[in-house]
Write a structure and sequence with these properties.
alpha+beta, Immunoglobulin-like, 4 domains, 23% helix, 29% strand, Lipoprotein
Length: 295
């Protein structure tokens, strides 16, 4: 490409010099030309300029004007995908459609001229805003709410039989609860029955009560979801890991420190009655499925 440009410029310069010499020669033979040779020269330069064509660099395309016709679904969730349909979408970027910083939350996974599949990894603090057109006049943005996740306490819930539970409330990421409630009334639902005496508050999502049965000296998982009443397909899910013990079961699970022996070495050896394993620290003891209580 560079070689073609150099040849083109050399041709133009040669044409200019040749024209100048011819006109200068004619002017010398005709003393009454009165400067008309200069006018003719400028005319030749003008004609040469009109015939010039624009040379595009290879690999560069002029940005086309795209348009977004529809987005489906209209509410998205973390770790899910949604699609954008429209025209001239093939060369559009995340930044053009969603603005600066969008790549932190989503990415294009499949792109054609009429459809883009978008993968959501995280929800932002506010709904995603889609610029529906590459045209300056297309400034009415499309708002797409994103529902994040929620969880309960990071550690497993451990309760004693017959003892009142301190209410455990769900913790939501960013503004996912506010976004969900802005769409309508929600309720919290457990997909399986909690231990007898423990219940889930449908309005707040708090876990409360006084357990009246154990979980058989083992941890159990209970899936919980926050659901939009008017549209149960719009939901965000979590789960709790829970154990309910008798006093004796708790005692057998409690991790105790003891003096280092020849068979149990470490900076802080621990063990519990349920296991014959020697743990190098209290944390390691509490993480074992057979143990899990600290005094």
């Amino acid at each position: 490409m560079t070689k073609k440009i150099i040849l083109f410029l050399s041709y133009k310069i040669g044409l200019f010099v040749t024209s100048f010499l011819i006109l200068l020669s004619c002017s010398a033979k005709d003393p009454n030309s009165d400067g008309s040779w200069m006018v003719s020269l400028l005319g030749l330069i003008s004609l040469a300029g009109e015939g010039q064509t624009t040379v595009e660099e290879p690999g560069l395309r002029p940005a086309g004007v795209y348009s977004v016709d529809s987005v489906s679904p209209s509410v998205v969730m973390e770790n899910s995908s949604f699609s954008i349909e429209g025209k001239n979408l093939e060369n559009v970027t995340e930044k053009q459609i969603f603005g600066e910083g969008a790549s932190k939350f989503l990415k294009f996974t499949e792109v054609t001229n009429t459809k883009i599949t978008v993968s959501v990894t995280l929800c932002s603090d506010s709904p995603f805003q889609i610029v529906p057109s590459g045209s300056p006049s297309g400034n009415n943005q499309i708002s797409i709410p994103c529902l994040g996740s929620f969880r309960y306490m990071l550690r497993s819930m451990s309760f004693l039989l017959g003892m009142s539970i301190t209410p455990e409330a769900p913790k939501f990421s960013e503004n996912s609860l506010r976004v969900l409630r802005s769409l309508g009334e929600i309720e919290f639902v457990s997909e399986s029955n909690l231990p007898e005496g423990i219940y889930l508050d449908k309005n707040s999502g708090e876990i409360k009560g006084i357990p009246t049965e154990t979980t058989g000296n083992e941890y159990r998982f209970y899936p919980i979801r926050a659901v939009l009443k008017s549209n149960p397909t719009l939901k965000i899910q979590s789960q709790v890991k829970m154990i309910v013990l008798t006093e004796e079961e708790k005692l057998n699970r409690t991790c105790h420190a003891f003096v280092e022996t020849s068979t149990c070495r470490g900076p802080s050896p621990h063990r519990c009655s349920n296991s014959n394993i020697c743990y190098t620290s209290q944390f390691a003891c509490e993480m074992d499925i057979e143990c899990g209580f600290s005094e």
